[in-house]
Specification:
It comes from Brassica rapa subsp. trilocularis. Residues 1-25 form the signal peptide. Belongs to the ERD2 family. The model has no long low-confidence stretch (mean pLDDT 88). It is globular, with a radius of gyration of 17 Å. Helix 2 runs antiparallel to helix 3 and helix 4 crosses helix 5 (117-131). The protein has one domain (3-207). The protein has 8 helices and no strands. By secondary structure, the chain is mainly alpha-helical. The longest helix is centred in the C-terminal third of the chain and has 27 residues, at 148-174. The protein has helices at 3-26, 34-47, 58-80, 97-110, 117-131, 134-143, 148-174, 181-207.
Length: 215
């Protein structure tokens, strides 16, 4: 554990809390992609298959449970909550995420560090997380206007990944056998996907105007 990873975890947790606040306070999921949330739930479920077999620390175990439970709660609300689900706009959330799932699974079978059940699904979760934000970004581009909570949610998600890249750089220079190259490359790809959003978020903040993404 180092300060960069801890800051990344807290930023990631903050993004989830912002999204839960939006859903429970407004009883609305307008502007949120269900497909992205389903992909993130699958990311956590496949990454933390070792939850009951490999104990690292109490902090590690608690964070795994929090990420799994919160992602499933968000998906449940968007699908089943009688008020929240009415605000979901499936006409805008049309990204074909099934192709992303298939591509990430094939990639995990071809490119992994150790050919075991857990390691292949760990690689799958890393590849999938790198592109899981795509349906959300596409939905925001199609809708045009982005409300404050949704914008902050995406901003904190991107900041979390940026902090994790710093964490990997730090570990590379301070640990003798740091070889998680799959996570490093995927993290760079994921951060690059946020670049356009960061640019328009900065313009919105600088000019004190409502955040809008170009179609």
């Amino acid at each position: 554990m180092n300060i960069f990873r801890f800051a990344g975890d807290m930023t990631h947790l903050m993004s989830i809390l912002i999204l839960l606040l939006k859903i429970y306070a407004t009883k609305s999921c307008a502007g949120i992609s269900l497909k992205t949330q389903e992909l993130y739930a699958l990311v956590f479920l496949t990454r933390y298959l070792d939850q009951f077999t490999d104990y690292v620390s109490l902090y590690n175990s608690v964070m795994k449970v929090v990420f799994i439970a919160s992602s499933l709660a968000i998906v449940w609300c968007m699908r089943r909550h009688p008020l929240v689900r009415k605000s979901y706009d499936k006409d805008l959330d049309t990204f074909r995420h099934q192709y992303v799932l298939l591509a990430c699974f094939v990639l995990a079978l071809l490119l992994h560090e150790i050919f075991t059940f857990q390691e292949v699904f760990w690689a799958f979760s890393i590849y999938l997380e790198a592109v899981a934000i795509l349906p959300q970004l596409v939905l925001l581009q199609r809708s045009g206007n982005v409300d404050n909570l949704t914008g902050q949610y995406v901003l904190f998600l991107g900041a979390y990944r940026g902090l994790y890249i710093i964490n990997w750089i730090y570990r590379y220079f301070t640990e003798d056998h740091f070889t998680r190259w799959i996570a490093c490359v995927s993290g760079l790809v994921q951060t690059a996907l946020y670049a356009d959003f960061f640019y328009y978020y900065y313009l919105s903040w600088k000019t004190n105007t409502k955040l809008k993404l170009p179609a």
